[in-house]
Structure formats: C-alpha cells, structure tokens
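JOB MANIFEST
job_type = single_chain_structure
chain_count = 1
residues = 295
[input]
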Amino acid sequence: MRTLTRRELLVASALAPLAAASLSDVKLGVTTDEIDEDLLTAVRFLSGFGLGYAEIRSIWGKYNTAQPLDRIREARKICDENGIRVSIEGTGFFKVALPANQAALDEQWALLDAAMERAKVFATDKIRVFAFTTNQPGEKKDYARIYELVREAAQRARRSGLRLAIENVGGSYVSTGAQAAELLKNVKEDNLGLTWDPNNAAASGERPFPDGYRLLDPVRIFHVHLRDYRHLPGGKVEWCAVGEGEFDNLGQIRALRKDGYKETFTLETHWRSPKGKVYATATSLKALLQVVDKV
C-alpha cells in the first residue's frame, strides 16, 4: 500500500468534515484510480470523506478485467472492510473500433465474460461499457451493426443478471446525449442503459444540460459521471476543478432526482493538478459535496 504524504493527509483531513448528511440520498463515489492505483489507499480516502461508494476501473496498475480473480477477491475484501460498495465496474468493453473479423469480436466477448465474472465478485450488477470508437462519427452505415452487437451484449449480460451502462465519450459513435438517446431507442433491452457523462457530451459539442439530458429517458440512466469543464478561447474543452468551470452540477443532480433517479454518481475528476491526484480529487470533491448539500 502506498502511504499518503503528510500534505495529502492534511488535504483529506481538512476537507473530510464537509461531507453532507444528504449523501444518504445522493449515492456518491469516486473512480478509485483517480485517487490512487492502490485500492486500500483509495478506499481509505473515500471513507475519510464519508463516502460509501467506489467506481472501480484500474487497480494496482491494471484494468480490473486484467487482474486475476484472486486479486479481485482481495479488492472486494478491502472494500468490505472499509465500508465501501462498488457502484459500477469500469471496463473497456467495446471501446475499440468496430471489429473487422470474428477473431477481433471474440476478443471482446472474452472481455465481457471477464467483466461479468468480476462484477459478481464485486457484488455490483452494473458494468460500464462503450459503443465503439470512430474517427468519423457521421458514418450512419455503421449504426445498424452497432445496435446489433450492443443488443447481443445486453442479452449475454442478462443471462448473468447484470446490466450494461454505455458511457457516452468523445471518439465514440455515442458521445452525446442525442446519440445516446438514439441508441437506446433502437436497443430496447431493459438491462441496457447509460452511464451519462454530461461533461463528455460538452467536449463533443453538445450543451449537455439541459439540452442533451432532456433527450434521455431517465429510467435508462443507470449511472452518472460528474466533474467540470470550461471552454478555451479556441472552443476546445478542458477539464477543471468542480466549481471552476461551466457545468451546472447542481441543476443536473436536481433534475435527475426530480425525474426519480435513485442510482449512483461518480466523481470522475480528470482534472490534473501539479499537486497530484489526491489534491485534485479532494479539491473537486470538496466542491461537489457543497453542491450535494444544496440538492
């Protein structure tokens, strides 16, 4: 386990008391590798802020799907001992170009099998996935095949009692709320939903809230990523600390709750500070907890 530096401990201990009572209503967590690759270090940080959830993507330097099952069982034990539940398993499933042959597709099915096996160990029914990458998002001819493969993936997951939550992300066929809504309209399996990332939608040119969000069926949103962004003079989006950018986290969370959303949120910090990941996450988490307290 990596030991937090004195500076990191001071940051965490100073900010932790700001955790709000309304966390019992807003199921907030953090992507653990954006705190530290060492899971014990990360979950102790979460516990110090009064958080009860974690999104697990990479642990101990590898995607969780690349870790052997004995390490996944170790990770589950660490979470249990620190009062942390895994909200969603982050994977790279279908975060590839549309497979050009059966061998490439079989690699993805093997990845999904590994993800489902690990989700069971983590005791989460949600797996974060994608809808393929592209340099030409306007290629309409590919969408029928995407819908077919996503539908098959959902059917495979259903047999294991699991849900797939596609994340909208830049460089994907599904990068905005509008594209996510279209996919969900065409793939009606009820265990296939969305990891809604409004900041990613903004980076792809959409006004994510309220415009992109308004297009979505809240029932099909299984998980939500939160952070903040701002536009640079040339129009490009950069990540920043929560509260220092343009995104209306308060409005988005309020709208979700008004629409009956009771699922999980993750602070996926992305902002990089020269003071390190712990500082960056703690800074954004402090601001986000103040938002949650107003919800």
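[summary]
Residues 22-294 form a domain with the TIM Barrel fold (CATH 3.20.20.150).
The first strand starts at residue 27 and ends at 31.
exit_status = 0
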